[in-house]
Structures are given as C-alpha cells and as structure tokens.
UniProtKB/TrEMBL annotation:
PANTHER family found in the cross-reference section: CHROMATE TRANSPORT PROTEIN-RELATED, CHROMATE TRANSPORTER
Protein name as catalogued: Chromate transporter
Organism name: Lacihabitans soyangensis
Principal place of residence: membrane
Keyword Metal-binding: no
NCBIfam families per the UniProt record, alphabetical: 2A51
Keywords: Cell membrane, Membrane, Transmembrane, Transmembrane helix
Keyword check for Metal-binding: no
C-alpha cells in the first residue's frame, strides 16, 4: 500500500514526539496510535498491532522499537533508520546537557521538587492513555480480557514483565480462534543473538560500557521499567560507576525528559566518562533493538495478514497492553504519595479528558511549576 505521507513528514512527527513526548512507553505508544492511526491515518490498525507485537517479542525498549517499525512500514530500512534517530536524538541531547549540569554543579536537588509534580501528572497521562489503548485493542472479546488481566496482575505482583506471557497469550488466542488448523501453522521465531568480537582490552572503560549496555539492549524485554533493575545491578552493584543517589537521579532525569525512558543510559554514560561514555552507552543500548526490529520486519509484513498470525498478534497485543497497564499501577504506587500528588494526577486526567486540544507538554510544565512551589514553599 502506498504511503499517504512523505518520509520527511513522519520524520518530523517522531522528532517532535522525541522532543515533547512525556510519559514513558505506555504514553508514547498510545500517542503513536492516536496520532498516526486515528488522527492522521498514516498507519493502519493492522500495521500498528504487528509493530507492537514485534516490539514485545524482541528485547529492547518498547517505544523505540515500535517507532522503528512504524518507520519501516512504508519506507523500509531507510525509514526505520531515520525515524529511529529522530525519535531518540532529542532526548539524548537533553540528558547529555543535564549530565553536564549535574557534574558541573554536583547534583540536581531541584529535580526532586520538579519531579514531585511531573510524576503525578505523568501518571494521569499514562493512565488515560492506557485506558484508550485497552478500549481500542481489546474491545468486547472476553478471551483477550482474560489474557489482559492475567498479564496485568503478573506485572503488578512481580513488578516485572515476562516475554513468556506474551508468547502464551499469542499461542492461546490462536488456539482459541483457529483450533482445527493450529498444528499446521508456521510461527516466526525470534532471531538468535549474535555478538561482534571486541579487540580492545577489557580494562578500557569504553569497552566495558559498550558491552554492559549492549547486554542491556539485547536481553531486557519490555518497557523502560524493565531495564531499571538490570541497570542498577550493573551500574551500582557490579561496576560501582554510580552511587545510589546518582542512580536515582539518573532515573529521575529519564522520567522528566521526553522520549524513551531508556535514554537514562545516556545520562549514566555521561557521568561515567563524559560525552564519549554517553554516546557509547546510547549506541550500545539502541543498536540491538534496531536490528531486532528491522530484520524480522519483512516477515511480519509478508505473513501478518494470515488469520492465524493475526490471532497470534492479537493475543500478544492483549498481553502487552496488560503489562503496560500493570506498569502504570506500579508507577502510580510509587509516585502518588499524598493528597497533592493524587490531586495533580486527577486534575491532569480531567483536563485531558474534557479539553481534547490541550497538549501534554503544557500540562507537564504546569505540573512541574506546581510541584516546585509545593515542595519549596510548603504550600
């Protein structure tokens, strides 16, 4: 099918989303659906679902992989590459700048006050976005609701995401929709991992950064929420590159900047070894997800219309939305700590629900100012 938009148009869209798209993966993938599927009609519902399913099956940051796939839909590898860069570069530059200020002034104490309001507003944004995503993706299909609920409960209870639940969701829904012919179905398996040899000495800090963050990008499934425990274990516990406070500041920076939450790797890399460290950490994290998206993409495009594959994708999508909704609950428990934060979240939902034309960055900015006032002036 011929594209209804130019490569420059979709590139500019993802450049804007990477610049002003707050809320983490749950909000970002909902924005993509709202803007590209519902409002602009650039991407079909089927292509979006295929991209979301592939992003869940492959390791790496969810929102970035979905963006890469959507760039691939009509403009193949060139579109995937340019869209991926447009989506990631704005937030990368922001965290590098914040890393510079952090090292220059010895900390980011103001972040806690600003994040107090922002985090509450973000919960409102992603909560509303998740509701829309659930309504659109699951509808009235009770079997999809079962998959959704099981995955959401698992995510909330374990505070982690399991790729096996995505597989089980896809397979079980395929069995449910196509029981007689299921055994004849050919499924597309995830690509095996491959590694390039590195000739530099292991003592070279850049090599250690590259290897560690490549492992993070290649082995961690799901959203930015999933990669945080992995980063903590390596950055703080194993390599001692950052202390506890620095790591929490790094996560806070990722949450208050737009774009993918995983961009926190750029901030961490900067604290370890300046701009070189930031660049290597970001490249090592995002390159695996790029290849895990564009290599299987042709097969999803070729076979995605088959009934059994569509059922498989629908089951995975229900599981993915369940995991995202579970992540919203987890983040809500950590961010909505008192009456003020709960009130900010509810006001955010009401504003965005009633006034459709209000842009999320405006709400985020207002919440940041309010949070700073509440924390510093004790109002």
């Amino acid at each position: 099918m011929k594209a209804h938009y130019s490569l420059s148009e979709i590139t500019l869209y993802f450049l804007k989303l990477g610049t002003v798209g707050f809320g983490g993966p749950a909000a970002l993938i909902a924005y993509m659906h709202r803007d590209l599927v519902e409002n602009k009609s650039w991407i079909s519902e089927e292509d979006y679902k295929e991209g979301l399913a592939l992003a869940q099956l492959a390791p790496g940051p969810l929102a970035a992989q979905l963006a890469i796939y959507l760039g691939y839909v009509h403009y193949r590898v060139l579109g995937a590459t340019i869209v991926g860069l447009a989506f990631v570069i704005p937030s990368f530059l922001m965290v590098v700048l914040l890393g510079y200020l952090y090292t220059l002034y010895g900390g980011l104490s103001w972040i806690q006050a600003v994040f107090y309001g922002i985090s509450a507003a973000v919960i409102g944004i992603i909560g509303l976005s998740s509701h829309k995503l659930v309504t659109k993706s699951i509808g009235n299909d009770y079997f999809l609701w079962v998959i959704f609920v099981i995955t959401a409960l698992f995510t909330v209870i374990t505070e982690s995401e399991s790729v096996w639940l995505f597989f089980i969701g896809g397979v079980s829904y395929t069995l449910y929709k196509n029981p007689p012919k299921f055994q004849k179905t050919n499924f597309i398996a995830p690509l095996g991992l491959s590694f390039l040899g590195v000739s530099a000495s292991d003592s070279d800090i850049l090599v250690k950064i590259a290897l560690f963050f490549a492992k993070a990008g290649a082995f961690v499934f799901g959203s930015g929420l999933a990669i945080v425990p992995f980063l903590y274990a390596g950055v703080v516990k194993e390599y001692h590159w950052l202390n506890e406070k620095q790591f929490l500041d790094a996560v806070a920076v990722a949450m208050i900047t737009p774009g993918p939450v995983v961009i926190t790797v750029g901030f961490i890399g900067y604290l370890v070894l300046g701009f070189k460290g930031a660049l290597v950490a970001a490249l090592a994290t995002f390159l695996p997800c790029y290849f895990f998206t564009i290599l299987p993409a042709p097969y999803f495009k070729k076979y995605g219309g088959l009934p059994r594959i569509k059922s498989f994708v629908s089951g995975i999508t229900a599981a993915a939305v369940g995991a995202i909704s579970g992540a919203v609950i987890i983040l809500g428990k950590r961010s909505l700590l008192d009456f003020n934060t709960i009130a900010i979240a509810l006001i955010t939902v009401l504003l965005l629900w009633k006034y459709k034309k209000i842009q999320e960055p405006i709400v985020i900015l207002g919440a940041a100012v309010l949070g700073y006032i509440l924390k510093n002036l004790a109002i």
